[in-house]
Amino acid sequence: xxxxxxxxxxxxxxxxxxxxxxxxxxxxxxxxxxxxxxxxxxxxxxxxxxxxxxxxxxxxxxxxxxxxxxxxxxxxxxxxxxxxxxxxxxxxxxxxxxx
Length: 99
Fold this sequence. Notes:
- This protein is mainly alpha-helical.
- It has one domain (21-91).
- It has four helices and no strands.
- The protein has helices spanning 12-40, 45-69, 72-77, 82-94.
- α1 runs antiparallel to α2 (45-69) and α1 (12-40) packs across α4.
C-alpha cells in the first residue's frame, strides 16, 4: 500500500480536505438550500418547510458523493453556492423583517 500519490505528494491532506468539504461544506450548503427552498415554495409555511427538509436529505447525499467525484478545486468552488442560497433563505431575518 502506498502512502503517497503518483506525483510523490502525500495523500492525507487531500483526503482530509475532501472529508471536511463533504461534512462541513455539505452541511452549510444543505442548510442554506433548505432555508431558501422553504422560503420559495408556495403554499402553507409548514408544508414548504417539511418539503424542503425532505429534499435536504437528497441534496446532502448527492453533494457528498459529488465532492469525491470531481477535482478538489471544483469541490471548493462549489462553496460559492452557499452565499446566494443563504441570502434567499435568511434575508428577512438579516434585516429584521417579518417572515
